[in-house]
Amino acid sequence: MKRRVMAFIAGVLFAMGLVLGGMTDPQKVLAFLDLAGHWDPSLAFVMGAAIAIYAPAYRWSRTRSKPVFDDVFHMPVRRDLDPPLVLGAILFGIGWGLSGLCPGPALVSAMSFRKAGLLFVAALLSGMALFTVWQRARSSARHRSSPSS
Q1: What is the dihedral of CA 105, 48, 57, 1, to 10 degrees?
Q2: Which residues of 58-77 are buried (b: 16+ CB within 10 A; e: fewer)?
């Protein structure tokens, strides 16, 4: 229960930071990406502030044997760059550049019933569902084509 409460509090703080930083406004993000036009550097300041907070907290967490609100750290173990990761990063960048939203700000935007946020979240959920269907079909096809023991 304590983990869920802390996750909720972290989510609320994250959402508040996005709103205060203006990152739920797609035009603000698109202005940051518009280097040749009316460039707005405010996204860089929001990212810089996030890194300034996260970096020391991460270093401190590495000195601990376990997290404060869990039994173990859940750190990534893979260090390689595989094609699905690279393709996902490319798709993320294209989507962010076209819409001015990424999943976190889009969820916050959707919760305030902004049209852009609602459309983004609908597209995000549709993409996730299609990916799940595709993965299951691939897994099923592999299972059918493998020789039986």
Answers
A1: -10
A2: eeeeeeeeeeeeeeeeeeee
